[in-house]
Amino acid sequence: MSHGSYTTFGGIPYAAPPTGPLRWRAPVPAATWHGVRDATTAAQRCVQMPTPGAGAVLGSEDCLYLNVTMPTPKPAGQKRPVLVWMHGGAFLGGSGSDYSTEQLAVRGDTVVVTVNYRLGIFGYFGHPELGSAPPFGLADQQAALRWVRANAERFGGDPGSVTLFGESAGALSICAHLTSPTAVGLFQRAVLQSGSCLMSFPRGALGPGIPAYEPFASQRDVQTAGAEAARQLGCTAGGGDEVLACLRGQSTDRLATAQLMQSFNRPSFGNTLLPVAPDQALASGRFHRVPIIQGTNHDEMRMFVGLSLAAFPIRTENDYRARVVDAFGLAAPAVEAQYPAGHYPTPALAWAAVLTDRSLTCTTLAVGRAIAAHAPGLPLYGYEFSDPDAPVLTGLPANPGFPYGAAHGFEMPFLFSSFPTERPLTDAQRALSDRMVDYWTNFAHTGNPNTPDAPLWPVLRLSSPLAQSVQSLAPGPGGIHPVDAHSAHHCSFWDRLPQ
């Protein structure tokens, strides 16, 4: 569909519908079509975890489609770099069509592709009878990248200049592809926003008693969970073929329950796509040598804490102390001494700061050190999105005395112009948005985010833990400048603390 300065193509199939006998199989090529295909609207999103109180299941299992945005006109002879976006959503929600990419395409002179991939039990199920099947959602993403390699030139794109970028679960996906032997040659650069190979949450981060979270799971653990799910679904009789036929015969609605979806939202390792856990692969130097931008937001975990405050309020220092003890056990006094509640406007903000530093900022910097240790000459850039007044994303609850600041996902409206927020960007924020788009797209063009008219973004130097400057991204004069995130987020403390 033409929009003047850009053209969009929605709902392009990159793999066959993973339904019926193709449920829980690696993606296979989509059927060819003859004549003109309608590409004026995006396809349905992949089946999502149902929201509380919702009726029908949202989305469809027939969902392996992507969307392309390209500037108009298509260049004669010259090929543009391609940006491929993997959405976030905890491997449980989201869709490629949620993101408006025209600013990246037009201002950045790039071709932008957004991708749907299987979610929850449909994307990350395992069972002994499936053997060492790959995580299907990640296999979908690699199939989409192969489609891009085969078809980018049709849209004026360069199949040899692909930048993979994503946020949250999308960034975790990119971590997996960086360490996946089956992703060789599928992308030439990577941008990881608020998610890394070392990210994890301690016990109680999302609420008292909620178990610790690691983003990847062993094949054995996923198979064990799958065998239990099969028992719950009544699929145990007969041999292996009968069990799988029973499981594949279950209705979408019967599988898309909150309990089953949440039981399968961690990609498995111990298969051809991920032979070992990504953090172990990274530590041993088994990752693709491509230029990387990685970063976090200044107040990442305020989003998660804000979502849980109604159910689990943190009103007093005793409430805060109980959360710290739940998360860190014997190390709790050391954590509380490093983060005294009295040093923060409220105990809830103190708790959010603890989790931001421990789970996202410092783990992301540690990834940078691991990369630098094995590939010291690799172009590596770090950032911290730091706008304290970023627009609040639509749907987040208002908590008096608990500003969200630069929380998880709050950089999205600065890259994707129509991302839903409670208010539009200010003039200063729009200027920051333009600058961020320039940085991201120049990186896609050259492997270096810097442009002649922008504040210098230095390469991340990791020779010393005391000199780990990342680019602070905030609006207003002087808002873009290098900062020592390692010191500002107490990373020396977390690096010493047993995990």
UniProtKB/TrEMBL annotation:
Gene3D superfamilies: alpha/beta hydrolase (3.40.50.1820). InterPro entries: AB_hydrolase_fold, AChE-related_enzymes, CarbesteraseB, Carboxylesterase_B_AS. Keywords: Hydrolase. Residues 5-460 form the Carboxylesterase type B domain. The keyword Acyltransferase does not apply. Its EC number is 3.1.1.-. It comes from the Bacteria. It is an enzyme of class 3 (hydrolase). It holds the Pfam family COesterase. PANTHER family: ACETYLCHOLINESTERASE, CARBOXYLIC ESTER HYDROLASE. Belongs to the type-B carboxylesterase/lipase family. This is Carboxylic ester hydrolase.
